[in-house]
């Protein structure tokens, strides 16, 4: 594969070229002098900024070329474990752009936006049904904020009962990093419960940890090893008998849609990632959406305002004395909620169930394709994702990071690596349900080639990538001291 080097925008610059053509104005702004005085003199330029002088066509080609260097789910396979980078149906985008949705504002009178409120109300009802919860708030902006909001409701619940000694949140050692972080920000002390030899929560250790100081257990099911916590009913009994609550991290719910529900497993609180499971655009910093569902005894503590029906009209209820308060302005990320609503209505109950069935099928198919060439820490049926270990390749001097970099040469985004941290040289792969068998076969072929290269041509892998616009970086230096401006030398 040969990379075509594209000249940078400054290198295309030629004096006198412009990317726009506007007629001269005969009108000067009568407030020009006042506007000039708004900025302090030390912030005003003495000279014109040094910008490239290019034509409109050159400018368009420059940014179009840059866009092709970004990897996205629309351009290639994106098997990022635990992140569910699945295809975003374009029908959802069309609905989100309908004028009646796109051109309204949250400060408009309620009577003018009843259609939008109806969508939000119906979406909350649908998510409650899907998760087995009694009520749902759409406010949280993403999963991590949903975790925090859910834990704050659990905290408010315990405080309302006078049980302020419940300061500990139990978190598995394989959990998403946001779980202990959210617990800490919510004012709790995270406590780690071990994973046993099956890759599941160690029940005996959980029993030792659960007690009068337990506020909650945070768990995702399937867990981050891609395994279903089959002892979940017993785990729920342990926590509930101790007086705690169960929090469900919904990042992995793509494996259970229409098959089982967190509420039926014994969970009291659940967040969902609409930008993952329900096909909202994901990555690039957002936008996300992390609705939170709760069981009946936690409803008084939901973020306010709460959308309610009064007679024939939907309205916002601010009179919620036990509420944890507002967690996000404007009632949530409405555009992402619209996309999720469209997805749910398009798929229907049977379609959502098929999503999970195909996600699990794809993951197991790919896992068995790769099993002979990598170490498989847990040799059992996986759910929507699975973990491999690069320990075998590490013995030849090739790390998991090296193999991830080599994948870039073949046009694939690497899977999640070095997480969960309790698997040495970990690779966590999630193919999702939207990928065809041909894509999985092609990816497996490349992974097998890289596994062989690690033994036969280790330097090829260790020096990768070879065909990307930017070669291997010092990642720690790039994160801590990024170069944010063009240096013309």
Largest sheet, strands/sense/barrel: 7 strands, mixed
CATH fold-level label of the largest domain: Aspartate Aminotransferase, domain 2
> What topology, given as strand order, has the largest sheet?
1-7-6-5-4-2-3
Q: How large is the radius of gyration? A: 26 Å
CATH superfamily of the largest domain: Type I PLP-dependent aspartate aminotransferase-like (Major domain)
Strand content: 5-15%
What structural keywords apply?
2 domains, 489 residues, 16 helices, Aspartate Aminotransferase, domain 2, 12 strands, alpha/beta, Aspartate Aminotransferase, domain 1, 7-stranded mixed sheet
Q: What does this molecule look like?
A:
With about 500 residues, this protein is of the alpha/beta class. The chain has two domains: about 90-345, Aspartate Aminotransferase, domain 2; about 355-480, Aspartate Aminotransferase, domain 1 (Alpha-Beta Complex), CATH 3.90.1150. It is about 35% helix and about 10% strand. The chain has 16 helices and twelve strands. The strands form three sheets. A seven-stranded mixed sheet has the order 1-7-6-5-4-2-3, with helices on both faces. A three-stranded antiparallel sheet has the order 10-12-11, covered by helices on one side. The protein has a two-stranded antiparallel ribbon with strand order 8-9. A hairpin with a 2-residue loop joins strand 8 and strand 9. Helix 5 packs parallel to helix 11 (about 335-370) and helix 6 crosses helix 7 (about 180-185). The longest helix has about 35 residues, at about 335-370. The two termini are about 30 Å apart. About 40% of the residues are buried. The model has no long low-confidence stretch (mean pLDDT about 95).
